[in-house]
Amino acid sequence: MSHDHDHDHETPSGPALRAEALEALLLEKGLLDPAEVDAVIANYGERVGPLNGARVVARAWTDEAYRQRLLADGTAAAAELGIVGGPGGQMERLVVVENGPTVHNVVVCTLCSCYPWALLGLPPRWYKDPAYRSRVVREPRAVLREFGLEVPAEKALKVWDSSAEVRYLVLPERPEGTQGFSEEQLVALVPREAMIGVALVSEPPEAAA
Amino acid sequence: MQGIHDLGGREGFGVLQVEKDEPAFHHRWEAAVFAMMFAAGRAGATGNSDRFRHAIERIDPAAYLEDSYYGRWLGGLETLFVEAGVLTREAIDERAQRLGAPLTARVASRPQAPPDPIVGYDASGCLRDLSTPPRFALGDAVQTTLASSPGHTRLPAYARGRPGRITAQHGGWVFPDTHAHGAGEQPAHLYTVAFEGRDLWGPGSEPGVVVHLDLFEPYLLPRKESP
Predict the structure, then answer these.
(1) Using CB atoms within 10 A as the burial measure, which of A99, A131, B80, B143 is most buried?
(2) Which of A10-19, A192-201, B107-116, B144-153 has the weakest average pLDDT?
(3) For residue A110, what is the nearest residue in chain B, using CA coordinates?
(4) Taking chain A, what is the end-to-end CA distance rounded to the nearest angstrom?
């Protein structure tokens, strides 16, 4: 069996053992319930994901008045769809930045890993790793190229480094070939990466065919 | 402080490692660490999120790079539990060794003695009404300060002493530089400031790049524009 596919059966890493020790001590003190760990896995592993963000994007694509409210006050517009971040959802204030023919936006947190949990769930590992956090403010075009996204040099590239409690969401461009799509069909097209700004929303396969 | 966490613009980290369809947690212990954050809150050990962030910034720098995201949280949480007197470092060491950790294993946490006062989390958030008007208006030219707070700060090193321009006003917010250290909320006006790529990285930098940061008023000075 290769090492690549069997991490959990290797010698536990330093943090894994240290976490086990801390968990055991907290259980003994009655400060942690094992069911709580299972609840975290169920909640963040299965329930909370980028779907809320995709709902916001699809609504903005299909409702021009909503799009304008979203760009003017992201927090209030998200709340219209029942998405209330607040401090617990890591989204006390939301600012939505819109991609277009002359501008591309991309989001990062260079100091830690701030991310709009209430809209996108927990961030992917690359978003929290040093490579992305160090490079995307210095050479965003090179970083996006590694994601397979070539942003033309004449297009402005705006990077949003989430250095305070404001959280950012990219409103991607609606792809061609989606005329007549329902809001629900559009939601399914929007990947998390497009709302961070490291991807575009692809044309639906049937339209591209 | 310009700790290892202050990664913006550092070079040498290589290409991104992007995993397709990755799970929210790669190991059970990562979810356990996530749950321990709630336990720390209940035990009164967390204080506020600024204090938690600063506990992560204080972990061993090599561990910061090696231990991945939840490993960093773990180091920060351990510091918070020890500083709050909930657990001792010796008890955690002893248990980790009993579970098989080598005596020489690097320990990420760095508790202080005595710790900063632990000031609690305000569930209503960090937005505050300010009676003082904002010092800067939309479009104003500003310069960031060259020095930063000795402890926690949200002015990244790459944007210190740089010219920028105000593009948004966000009202008053709790000031992380004091809040993290139990030195009060000291709310300050928050702005979005835009920096031209060439003002951060020099003339050879990528074309057409503008980097935006959300910066507190104490980080900003007025700037006269050359005619």
Answers:
(1) B80
(2) A10-19
(3) B8
(4) 40
Give alpha helix (H) positions in chain A: 14-28, 34-42, 51-62, 64-72, 74-80, 117-120, 125-128, 130-135, 140-146, 183-187, 192-196, 205-208
With respect to residue B119, please indicate whether it lies within any of the assigned structural domains: no
Residue B157: domain span: 127-222
Is there a catalytic annotation at residue A109?
yes
Interface confidence, given as ipTM, is: 0.97
Residues B207, B158 within the same domain: yes
pLDDT digits (tens, 9 = 90+) for B168-192: 999 999 999 999 999 999 999 999 9
Shared domain check, B94 and B180 = no
Distance from the B56 Cα atom to the nearest Cα atom in chain A, whole angstroms? 9
The answer to whether position B116 is within a domain reads: no
CA-based radius of gyration for chain A: 19
For tokens 């992305």, the residue is A132
pTM metric for this prediction: 0.95
CATH of A51-208, one of 3.90.330.10, 3.60.10.10, 3.30.413.10, 2.30.40.10: 3.90.330.10
Q: How far is CA A209 from CA A136, A178, A206, B122, B144, in A?
A: 34, 13, 5, 53, 51
Interface test with B, best of A73, A91, A111 (most B CBs within 10 A): A111
Whether residue A162 lies in the annotated active site: no
Q: Is B104 on the interface with A (CB under 8 A)?
A: no
Catalytic residue among A112, A134, A163, A182: A112
Helix (H, G, I), strand (E, B) or coil at B95: helix
For residue B196, the chain A residues in CB contact (below 8 A) are none
